[in-house]
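thread: overnight batch results

M.L. [08:02]
morning all. the overnight job finished for the chain we discussed friday. pasting input first so we're all looking at the same thing
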Amino acid sequence: MFAIQLDESTDVAGLSILLIFVRYIFETSIEEDLLLCTPLDTNTTGEEIFKVIDSYMNKHQVDWVKCIDICSDGAAAMVGKIKGTVTRIKNVAPKCHSSHCVLHRHALVSKKMPLELKQVLNEAVCIVNYIKSRPFQSRIFKKVCEEMGS
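M.L. [08:03]
and the structure it wrote out:
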């Protein structure tokens, strides 16, 4: 069994990139890895995105039936009821559920956040980025969190 999280975004140069993360059980733990990062050379429609994903899954002999959840943003290409990527995946993985990415909701909410709260959020993001960008700091922070039980 596995679950995937999809995101298509366009960078400042106009290049569309499809990112897919996969979560799966390995031995006794739940693992999460980057499954695919690929440019979308043509359209970014639900059909084209599905074709890219389906081609990758077929090439690597991944059985769609084992897909139990798809997480994506609310873009029409992803969640459109007829032509969306999620709908197309559910056609080949009928028992698959779908969910809206919590981080996208948080990003939408943060746009309307009062200035004082936005400053606190920005400071928290800077602190996390500082810790995560330095392996030694990251290991120490992880150890402190484990000791605190968080």
